[in-house]
């Protein structure tokens, strides 16, 4: 349903934005990771040195060891994450979850600093604890600003510990410091959430631009495919019509009694090719407009013979011997006449191209019954054959073995056969060259006499 598809598209876009946002958030944090780690290590080391002559030195040392252990664990985790990301894409969702977890752990460790040591510290010690706590609070939120949840996870425990200590003292000065601390933290977190919002908007804009560029590239690619198909399909009837007109021109310079055939014959053939060209253009126009091709009952043998007559002039130029063994009793199919002409014109033209540089030039077209409900047509040439490397993808668009080929002819053939519920494949010709074999369903015996 259209509504369901639209909802799925919106969900996919939201998940794409969220995934890109998480990756960008982690990247932004990792840019400041080592600076933040070093800052935390140095701050804890400063407090340890300031407590060497204090009675609480062992407690401070224990606290510092806990902080350093957490920093080492986080650094090891970061090193492992970088090693994994070099081998393949990492899971950004899990990375954000781990970041929040470690932010909470390190925040609790720094929250213990004022909670454990502020009450019994000297005035200078209290001032140092306040400076270290405030510095870690601001520096932590700054480093984790791209991930507000991690910023809250880190700063929350520190702020709670500091407020608890300040309010426990209870005098006016400490209460005012607590109020200032709350305001300071609120401004920091507001900046972090605004930064995430701007980052998300930027990523959404980038994704929209990328999708627009991708759509434009696809449209250009589609236009190129249509142009290539148009050039390919128009070239054959135009070339044939040109050849017939040139034949008529040569005959016009020969006295009427010495002409090998009446001048009306090549002119009539040229008109036939121009009519084929008109049909091809109409068919392509209908395809672009999304109209289904009209199908009717027709005889494949008649189509094949008509295509061979069209290519008679080129056949004579290349000195190609044609053997047609169209022996299938039932050749009536329900098909689009223009597409069937395209199908066999392309196969025969490709066979001619394959034999241009061959010493022996023989084209064999045969038909046979496949049980009672299908006909098999084999188009065999004595050309250079098809290499195994190209054979597996020969019917894909833009794949060609010709120096000047567009790579759309066999792709069109495959599409036509598939549209008519048939099969097509390529086999090596035992005598050298290639055999294009195709099977199409035929009509019942009581309907085939109505075919054209």
Description:
The chain is α+β, with helices and mostly antiparallel strands and 452 residues long. It folds into 2 domains: 2-215, no CATH class; 298-450, Heat Shock Protein 90 (2-Layer Sandwich). 67% of the residues lie in helices and 10% in strands. The protein has 13 helices and 7 strands. A 5-stranded mixed beta sheet has the order 2-4-5-7-6, covered by helices on one side. A two-stranded antiparallel sheet has the order 1-3. A hairpin with a 3-residue loop joins β4 (362-370) and β5 (374-381). α2 runs antiparallel to α5 and α5 (123-143) runs parallel beside α7. The protein is rod-shaped. The model is unreliable at 1-13 and 401-407 (pLDDT under 50).
Write a concise keyword list for the protein shown above:
452 residues, alpha+beta, Heat Shock Protein 90, 2 domains, five-stranded mixed β-sheet, two-stranded antiparallel ribbon, disordered N terminus
Quick summary of this structure?
Helix content is 67%, strand content 10%. With 452 residues, the protein is α+β, with helices and mostly antiparallel strands.
Count of discrete alpha- or pi-helical segments spanning 4 or more residues = 13
How would a crystallographer describe the biggest sheet?
Answer: 5 strands, mixed
The string of secondary-structure elements, in order, is: HHHHHHHHEHHEEHEEHHEE
Q: Structural class given helices, strands, pairing?
A: alpha+beta
Q: Span between N and C termini?
A: 41 Å
Helix % is 55-70%
Q: Return the average pLDDT rounded to an integer.
A: 77
Report strand %. 5-15%
Strand order of the largest sheet: 2-4-5-7-6
Sum up the overall morphology in one term.
Answer: rod-shaped
Number of domains: 2
Please tally the β strands and state the result: 7
Gyration radius, in Å: 40 Å
Report low-confidence residues grouped into runs of 5 or more.
1-13, 401-407
GO molecular function: ATP binding; protein histidine kinase activity
InterPro entries: HATPase_C_sf (IPR036890), HATPase_dom (IPR003594), His_kinase_dom (IPR005467), Sig_transdc_His_kin-like_C (IPR004358)
Organism: Methylocystis bryophila
Keywords: ATP-binding, Kinase, Membrane, Nucleotide-binding, Phosphoprotein, Transferase, Transmembrane, Transmembrane helix, Two-component regulatory system
């Amino acid at each position: 349903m259209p509504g369901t598809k639209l909802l799925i598209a919106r969900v996919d876009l939201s998940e794409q934005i969220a995934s890109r946002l998480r990756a960008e958030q982690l990247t932004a944090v990792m840019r400041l990771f080592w600076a933040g780690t070093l800052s935390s290590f140095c701050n804890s080391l400063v407090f340890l040195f300031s407590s060497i002559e204090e009675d609480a030195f062992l407690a401070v040392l224990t606290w510092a060891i806990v902080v350093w252990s957490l920093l080492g664990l986080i650094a090891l985790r970061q090193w492992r994450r970088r090693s994994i990301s070099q081998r393949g894409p990492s899971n950004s969702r899990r990375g954000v979850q781990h970041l929040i977890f470690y932010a909470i752990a390190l925040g609790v460790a720094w929250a213990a600093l004022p909670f454990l040591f502020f009450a019994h510290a000297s005035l200078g010690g209290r001032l140092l604890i306040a400076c270290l706590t405030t510095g870690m609070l601001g520096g932590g939120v700054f480093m984790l600003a791209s991930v507000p949840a991690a910023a809250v996870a880190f700063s929350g425990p520190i702020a709670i510990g500091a407020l608890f200590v300040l309010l426990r003292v209870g005098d006016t000065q400490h209460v005012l410091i607590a109020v200032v601390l709350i305001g300071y933290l609120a401004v920091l977190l507001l900046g972090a959430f605004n930064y995430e919002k701007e980052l998300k908007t930027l990523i959404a804009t980038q994704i929209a631009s990328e999708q627009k560029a991708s759509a434009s590239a696809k449209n250009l690619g589609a236009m190129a495919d249509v142009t290539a198909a148009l050039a390919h399909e128009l070239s054959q009837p135009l070339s044939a019509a040109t050849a017939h007109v040139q034949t008529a021109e040569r005959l016009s310079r020969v006295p009427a009694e010495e002409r090998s055939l009446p001048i009306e014959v090549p002119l009539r053939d040229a008109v036939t090719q121009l009519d084929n060209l008109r049909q091809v253009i109409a068919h392509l126009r209908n395809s672009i407009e999304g109209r289904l091709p009209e199908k009717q009952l027709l005889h494949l043998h008649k189509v094949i013979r008509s295509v061979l007559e069209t290519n008679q002039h080129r056949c004579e130029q290349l000195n190609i011997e044609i053997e047609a063994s169209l022996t299938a009793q039932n050749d009536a199919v329900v098909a689009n006449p223009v597409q069937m002409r395209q199908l066999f014109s392309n196969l025969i033209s490709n066979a001619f191209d394959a034999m241009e540089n061959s010493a022996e030039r023989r084209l064999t077209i045969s038909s046979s019954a496949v049980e009672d409900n299908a006909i098999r047509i084999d188009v065999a040439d004595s050309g250079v054959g098809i290499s195994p490397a190209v054979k597996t993808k020969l019917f894909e668009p833009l794949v060609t073995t010709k120096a000047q080929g567009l790579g759309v002819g066999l792709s069109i053939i495959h599409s036509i056969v598939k549209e008519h519920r048939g099969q097509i494949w390529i086999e090596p010709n035992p005598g050298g060259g290639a055999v294009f074999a195709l099977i199409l369903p035929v009509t019942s015996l009581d309907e085939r006499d109505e075919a054209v």
